[in-house]
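User: Hand in any protein.

Assistant:
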Amino acid sequence: MEIRFGSYIVADSEAHRVMHRAAERARRITARINRGNLRQKGIAKLFGRLTGKKPGEGFVLFPPFYTDCGRNIAIGRKVFINAGCCFQDQGGIEIGDGCMIGHQVVIATLNHDLRPDRRGNMMASAVKIGKNVWIGSHATLLPGVTIGDNAVIAAGAVVTKNVPAGSVAAGVPAKVIKKIGG
């Protein structure tokens, strides 16, 4: 069972149970990544097992790293992910070539229903990050956002809306504060 963009996942449904099984698998693999003592080649190999796809050339990940599934992460070439990042990837995460992701960045692709009687239900929405994007430490990208090529997300920003290519976004919620000259 595959969870797709815009999927509404009902608590305790078969899709919800599939998500829990995927999370258990991801925790086992990320525990191996996070143990330490691994060279980048070993980390890349385990990351490939986690995602089901070989990471692109020049991929670098500094543990610890956490994800809820792993199978819904697509990574381009020359991507750097710093320590402490958490990717909630059930809705899908695409990271373009040449991206740099700072310490403790959170990328979330699930949102819970606002009604208290349905709070366990979730909506999945993909996060797409273009090429050559720099995401500063402690930034949070919320479900459904797209970050355009060559954009910069400032440290601590909470991205709730799309960020155009060649822009710098900062704040809570993040707003475009300038265009990058080139």
The chain has two helices and 19 strands.
